[in-house]
Amino acid sequence: MLSTIAAAALPILIAMLLLGGVAKLATADGDAEIGGLGRLGPAVLAPQRFRKAAMIGCALGELGLIAVLLLLPDQAVARWMPVAFFSVATYVLWDLRRRRPDVGCGCFGEVSAAPIGMRSIGRAAVLAAMAVIVAIESPGYAALSSWSWMTTAWLAGGIALVLLLSTEIEETVSRLRHRAPCEQRAIPAKRALSRLQSSSAWRSHVPMLVSDEPADMWRELCWRFFVFPARDGADVVFAVYLSGRRPAVKSAIVNADGRPITPLQESMHVSA
To answer: Domain Methylamine utilisation protein MauE: where (predicted)?
Structure first.
């Protein structure tokens, strides 16, 4: 019976580690707003300048544990590493809920931004228990060869339990049903910069720029502004609309005093 439960628990652990790792990497790469990672899980415990590195390190660790579960089931020390990971995660979430009740668990990146509750802690504890069973039985790839209907039943029950404890599902459904207006949505600056650099406004001004890295950037409502240094001490200011598949891009050239040299020009976003 224990081996059947272990065989069912293995794909659940792998799926959770994979989703968590990929989501954390996406959040770390896309979070360009100052302090954004300070609202997500254990990253809040790290100094501001190390939060992105902490998020990436955690993600890579989770992806590494997948290889441990699949490739090193017979290594006594390695197979207990997932147990240690989920056990520590359970304690950290419990401690964060007590010390910083305002932050999210960050288990799946920015999707897990809701304040930590007992369901998130319970999920981590359930995964830790699954990891213990897998470590005892260490099924590895052998679990696939001994699959049965009983294993499928345990798998379905495990998935149902994990879903029941996952607040991210409710958060995602709520976001889809009640999508915030553009002015209130968190949109990474990198996405706006990518839209800018594939626009005709960018291509028409890039020869006069002295750097392709913005000297300044800020957001006003649904517009993201970028300032690039240009020749003769001037600056080129771009404004990128943050909504729509083909957003408008505006540009203007200003002198050192902030006075416009050219009037504001507008172009539609066109992919190169």
So the answer is: 5-135
Our measurement of the distance from residue 1's CA atom to the centroid of its chain's CA atoms, rounded to an integer in Å, reads 37
Rounded Cα distance between 217 and 219, Å, is 7
Residue 233 is assigned to a structural domain of this protein: yes
| 38 found inside a domain | yes
Q: Which residue has the tokens 């020869």?
A: 207
Decide if 101 is inside a domain.
Answer: yes
In a domain, 23, yes or no: yes
CA distances from 271 to 194, 198, 228, 232, 247 (A): 10, 5, 21, 29, 11
Element of type H or E holding 252: strand 248-254
Tokens 């254990």 -> residue:
42
| SS3 (DSSP) at 102 | coil
**CA–CA separation, 8 and 87 (whole Å):** 20
Contact 226, 238 (CB under 8 A): yes
Could you tell me the mean pLDDT of each successive run of 10 residues in the chain, 272 residues long? 86 94 82 50 71 86 91 81 94 86 78 82 95 84 74 94 89 69 79 89 89 90 90 88 79 75 51 37
CA dihedral 128, 131, 136, 141 (to 10 degrees): 180
Residue given tokens 């439960």 in the structure block: 5
Q: Are 93 and 114 in contact (CB under 8 A)?
A: no
72 & 99 share domain: yes
Instruction: Give whole-number Cα distances, 142 to 4, 15, 96, 271, in Å.
Output: 11, 18, 38, 48
**Structure token pair of residue 98:** 């007590």
Kindly tell me the burial class for residue 176, based on how many C-beta atoms sit within 10 Å of its own C-beta (0-12, 13-18, 19 or more).
Answer: exposed
CB 42: neighbour CB atoms within 10 A? 19
